[in-house]
Amino acid sequence: MSEKYFPLNKAELEKLAERYPTPFYLYDEKGIIENARRIKAAFSIFPGYKEHFAVKALPNPYILKILAAEDFGSDCSSYTELLLSEMAGIKGENIMFSSNETPAKEYEMARKLGAVINLDDFTHIEFLEKTAGLPEIISLRYNPGPLKEGNAIIGKPEEAKYGLTREQIIQGFALLKEKGVKRFALHTMVASNELPIPYHIETAHMLFELVVEIHSKTGIKIEFVNFGGGVGIPYRPEQEAVDYKTLAEGIQESYNDVIKPAGLYPARHGALGIRTEWARVVTGPYGWLVTRAIHKKEIYRNYIGLDACMADLMRPALYGAYHHITIPGKENAPLSETYDVVGSLCENNDKFAIQRKLPKIDIGADFVVIHDAGAHGRAMGFNYNGKLRCGELLLRQDGSVIQIRRAETTDDYFATLDLSGIKNFC
Q1: Which pLDDT does position 48 carry in this prediction?
Q2: Cα 391 → chain centroid
Q3: What percent of the chain has a predicted confidence (pLDDT) above 90?
Q4: Which among 127, 121, 134, 219 is positioned nearest to 161, based on CA atoms?
Q5: Do the beta carbons of residue 361 and residue 368 sit within 8 Å?
Q6: E strand or H helix at 5, and its extent?
Q7: What is the per-residue pLDDT across 247-281, written as a single tens digit (0 to 9) for each?
Q8: Alpha-carbon distance 422 to 412, whole Å?
Q9: What does the pLDDT look like over 163-190, one tens digit per residue?
Q10: pTM for the model
Q11: Does domain 30-283 have CATH number 3.20.20.10?
Q12: In the chain, which residues fall in CATH 3.20.20.10?
């Protein structure tokens, strides 16, 4: 079982909502820091461990700066994410740039910042060389195809657009070596939101075997392997969180079985580096979408209408994903009602919960807190139907709350329209 907590009581939430009207996202700084330290402690058995937080999950420089202070790097996949990393003081090889179908200007920015560029296709070697030049270190992304199962979120590897085949990986590293690249890294990302620990250990084992094969066929020693993201969180209360220590020890056992016997990394020369690009497990459980119940509708089902909609959190509509819901002040009340919890978008899949057992909700009086929204939540918001994305608040370690992103306004919505000729347009 996983505990679903919320750091504020209803009275504190009422007071906060006077300053910042709902809906809004709230993040817990203390929870994020403590979790980051648990991850680092578990993986400290690997001297070369580095976590690169996936910026796409929570692209806010305040959060990135908190994590940078814990010696986390960043994983970027766009020009803007590179700028956010720079804004937070994350530079150089603390940035992994993993992009696909990448425009030249994005490679140029990655080179400018000194990021480790992770190429997604064999042809991108030549493209990078012509547009931005080849850096000293290059990483290649491996797609194992049918050798590894994916999942509903990221798809089956053999159907996914990402990465190089095994044969292309070997050829790619040989070509990079021929072109004068001196340092090499290996990356994969084959699934998302997976809880079973053996799945992630198998991924590590697969990469370790490939490291040995690459050396035997090209003479190249891989400097580090990046297992990507993929580790899940217990969205449902009945699920168990991944134990970082057990996972790290399992990867270490695989390392000892595959890498050590190959003799590629004698103690005096250091070890193969281990890296991850987690985000969901880092911030996911420490963010909530806070909204109010503003309508109740009783037809064939009973509906609770919120002042938030799928433009604020689209995971339930996009993936059919479960997000736990609690009603502050009614944590111990009986789950006496069955509701569809919905937003106001003109889409029938604008539902945060379907036939969910909840306490009786009082319209206009009750807050609705949607849990585990600290990753891939606000970041995936959109403006369809003219909806305006909500703001983000940070609960500091001293109990104070600051705004780290304001809610959008209609001025923001219209800002990109060229209205200079609208009066005379016909």
Answers
A1: 87
A2: 19
A3: 91
A4: 121
A5: yes
A6: none
A7: 999 999 999 999 999 998 876 557 999 999 999 99
A8: 18
A9: 999 999 999 999 999 999 999 999 998 8
A10: 0.95
A11: yes
A12: 30-283
